[in-house]
Write a structure and sequence with these properties.
single chain, 2 helices, about 45% helix, elongated
Length: about 70
C-alpha cells in the first residue's frame, strides 16, 4: 500500500523520514492532490540510471533506423 501523507506533515519531517524505505517512497499531497515524492537516495539513483539507459537506447534505435541498420 502506498505511503501517502499531506505535505503539512513535513512540519515534523523526522516522522516522515522515518517512513521512507528503499523501494517504498512517501507520496506527499497538497490540497488533496499528489504533489511530491520522497524516496531513498539509492532508489532515486537507480531510477535516474534507468532513465539515462532508456534515453540512450532510444537514441541508438533512432540512429539505427536513420542509417538503415534497423528496420
Amino acid at each position: 500500500m502506498p505511503n501517502i501523507k499531506p505535505v503539512s506533515d513535513l512540519r515534523n519531517y523526522n516522522e516522515v523520514l522515518r517512513d521512507i524505505a528503499v523501494g517504498e517512497p512517501v507520496y506527499l499531497t497538497k490540497n488533496g492532490r499528489g504533489r511530491y515524492v520522497i524516496m531513498d537516495m539509492e532508489e532515486y539513483e537507480k531510477v535516474q540510471a534507468k532513465i539515462r539507459l532508456m534515453s540512450e537506447l532510444a537514441q541508438g534505435e533512432k540512429t539505427g533506423k536513420e542509417k538503415g541498420i534497423l528496420t
